[in-house]
Amino acid sequence: MANVTLKRATKIYPGEKTPAVQDITLEVKDKDFLVMVGPSGCGKSTILRMIAGLEEVTAGEIYIDDKSVDGVSPKDRDIAMVFQNYALYPHMNVYKNMAFGLKMRRYSKSEIKQRVIEAAQMLGLEDLLDKKPKALSGGERQRVALGRAIVRKPRVFLFDEPLSNLDAKLRVQMRRNLVQLHRRLEATMIYVTHDQVEAMTMGSSIAVLSKGHIQQIDEPLNLYDRPANKFVASFIGSPPMNLLSASVQQEPAGFCLRANGLSLKMDKDLGNYLGKEITFGFRPEDVQCLSGGPSRPGGPSRPGGPFKARVESVEPLGPKSNIYLTVGKSTFVAAADGHCGLKVGEEIAVDFDCSKIHLFDEGGCRIQ
Ligand SMILES: Nc1ncnc2c1ncn2[C@@H]1O[C@H](COP(=O)(O)OP(=O)(O)OP(=O)(O)O)[C@@H](O)[C@H]1O
Ligand SMILES: [Mg+2]
Description:
Elements: E1 4-11, E2 21-28, E3 33-37, H1 44-52, E4 59-64, E5 67-68, E6 79-82, H2 94-104, H3 109-123, H4 138-150, E7 156-160, H5 168-185, E8 188-193, H6 196-202, E9 205-210, E10 213-218, H7 220-225, H8 230-235, E11 242-251, E12 254-259, E13 262-266, E14 277-282, E15 287-290, E16 307-316, E17 320-327, E18 330-337, E19 347-352, E20 358-360
Parallel strand pairs: 3-8, 3-9, 6-7, 7-8
Antiparallel strand pairs: 1-2, 1-4, 4-5, 9-10, 11-12, 11-14, 12-13, 14-20, 15-19, 16-17, 16-19, 17-18
Helix pairs in contact: 2-3, 2-4, 3-4
């Protein structure tokens, strides 16, 4: 298996002015599972295709195991790529679909058989080897596509949204299968998705992309706990982090954030931001919904809190409910217990755990 390193890789498609991806620098260590996540058009497929050799790199370099792959053709890169649209050969059965690539590479019949059977066992396809693709379910077809990649025993696997054609239940199952497969194969894998749940649950590390640039590369929970900027903060998490503008003011009790209807005392030294507009963010689960009106006995002694809030809408999800609230002119979402019983139009008290508040400067970057 192999390390994959990109150094300032940039792609400008012919006839285009703006780069599809720019200055992509990342290192995927041997046996790592890196997930690249970002909205449609941010450049995920372009990066994979450059690694696979299907797109030329306009500037920068790509290394596989410390060797530049500049000028190395896709077939000599020893990479297998699984796409969202994994066209199987319709006239071939499952066995032949999986064997085809090896046959083209002139492997012996016995070697082919051994590899196909081994992959079929891993993927639970043993009983389907004689079937043609049209007689398979979507999930089974997807597993055959995976099998085609596995039999090649490549140094690197690239996955381009391979689960997006599957229904929600099957996706969850295939997600787990892929993670298990990664452990069994001890392979280097790069997996592209626009689904942040897939990213969080599958990756040992995650690269978040926006508009052709990497925003942050980190372990899943670090991304969640310490997003480097507003984009990552709003992309990772469902519902996303609440982001509100506020001005920084100094009060006798310390630095204070003032937003529409909210005033929060902060423990951090925000002297550099006095009088400036910044953005503060808080996760839905860090809002406490307190029933019984705005005046909670024993509430914290800081400006304004707890706050009187109005319930605008309630989304029951079972284990929890998303409660959309307004305080003054500020609107945000809180995660409450699934059986909280809150009703639209009700007035409640809410409070915030200020140690869990994230701050972003005018440029959107995290303030430490
Ligand atoms: N062959 C091409 N010629 C010109 N522009 C292209 C080409 N392929 C992609 N692009 C542009 O490059 C940018 C990145 O595209 P890319 O396919 O890498 O995005 P993506 O993140 O994979 O999106 P999606 O999630 O929709 O698959 C987009 O703006 C796209 O329009
Ligand atoms: Mg794509």
